[in-house]
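Justification of computing resources. Each target in the renewal requires a structure prediction run like the one illustrated here; the chain below, 258 residues long, is used simply to show the kind of job we budget for.
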Amino acid sequence: MSENSAPDPRPVITEEQRAAVLERVNRPRWRVWRAAVEWAKSFQIAILLALFVRAFFVDAFKIPSGSMEHTLLVGDFLLVNKLAYGAEVPFTGKHLPAMRTPKRGEVIVFLFPEDLTKNYVKRLVGLPGDTVAMERGILRVNGVSHPETYVEHTMPWDDRGTEEFDWQKGFLALDSSAARRYHPTRDTWGPIVVPPANMFVLGDNRDNSSDSRYWGFVADSLLRGAPLFVYYSYQPDSTCPMSWLTSIRWSRLGERIE
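Resulting structure tokens:
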């Protein structure tokens, strides 16, 4: 150093000190990155768990029509037990063992036989081997009249037959002579024998329901589950886009399906 040169005022920093400073500077960024990675892992696990639960345990369904009024209303959201009748293993077409068999009078969720992309909700009234019939709106199962306190009638009796009922002729518990005179209507039909591995279903809004009377039986392989309760419900209103929030039916939340 020459006599005229001034001493360097900057402190001398060792390599160890430099490394410590860099670590402190980078530590917050590393923490943020590590937190983001951990959050992403937790989110993925939550999604996988939700998909697993939905596939094998419970699922949610919305009621789009009034065919089950007043048991179920348009705008009801149901939580459905998929294990009850044996949940389907995704992409295999196979089912887990059922916890129990369906019973007459239960409300069930199933795939619509004529369009497997749609879920239907109806009441099960006929099991395999049962003989079901209706006389002026009165349901008979195996020759016994069934009082249906849950059924609603909104229209007069209808004695007009249509081609939609013609499928019934292949399952009649009648002799050939009576079968030739068979003219089913919406409120008077049968007796029909439910074939093996099939079920007969009806809507509770009996005068305004597309059900087994019109399109036939439901194969037990199409069962999706048993509704548990209404977890959300609102009154749809086409004039109010926020009706799902402003028109909640609070009294129906948590209501059991029977």
